[in-house]
Design a protein that fits this description.
single chain, mainly alpha, 10 helices, 80% helix, 0% strand
Length: 194
């Protein structure tokens, strides 16, 4: 009996160690979903908590990254649906604080003030455009482009056919390009004048 518990503990420790290797990627995906650092951290923490609680359901040798991301998406959609049902006074206070500054949280190799401002502006513009496009196109872009998932992994996570992922990515990219076209044209004109 003690040997069985010891084996289970070793399996859980091995699972936990492997799951931790995906922490950064899950955080990036969560940040694009919830758009706020603390909420993204909470979402990742809940994902790991749920994953550790049901680690026996994971089949060793399969794609843990996709399995964890599926748990993350399910948690995100569950909480989003719950938020729609309840309005909190705290939500109004959080909106007054303004958006968190992602650039200040990420360590850099001292890129200089101009580069930092341009990077901040570009990230803000891209985030705005991502928020404007419909969710059905945004989610595949977040997974494949920003989350480094393959098309097959994204299809598995979103529970849809591979062709649908390809189509939504293509249409989502066109929507993003259309939204950024004016911004990109202005930037190109400025670069040509120099």
């Amino acid at each position: 009996m003690a040997r069985g518990i010891e084996t289970r503990d070793k399996e859980k420790e091995k699972f936990s160690h492997e799951a931790m290797t995906h922490l950064d990627r899950l955080y990036r995906v969560a940040l694009h979903l919830v758009k706020e650092s603390n909420e993204a951290k909470d979402l990742v923490q809940e994902t790991y908590s749920r994953a550790l609680g049901s680690y026996e359901q994971f089949t060793p040798g399969t794609n843990m990254k996709a399995w964890l991301t599926t748990i993350l998406y399910n948690s995100f959609f569950h909480h989003r649906n719950q938020k729609k049902k309840w309005i909190s006074v705290e939500d109004n206070f959080a909106e007054d604080e303004g958006p968190s500054d992602y650039c200040e949280q990420v360590p850099t190799e001292n890129p200089g003030p101009e580069a930092l401002m341009l990077l901040k502006e570009l990230k803000g513009k891209i985030a705005d455009v991502l928020n404007k496009i419909p969710e059905e196109f945004r989610l595949p872009i977040v997974l494949v482009v920003m989350g480094d998932f393959s098309y097959e992994e994204a299809a598995e996570i979103l529970s849809c056919p591979l062709g649908t992922i390809r189509s939504r990515l293509s249409r989502g990219r066109r929507l993003i390009y259309k939204q950024l076209k004016g911004y990109i044209d202005i930037e190109e004109k400025v670069e040509r004048k120099k």
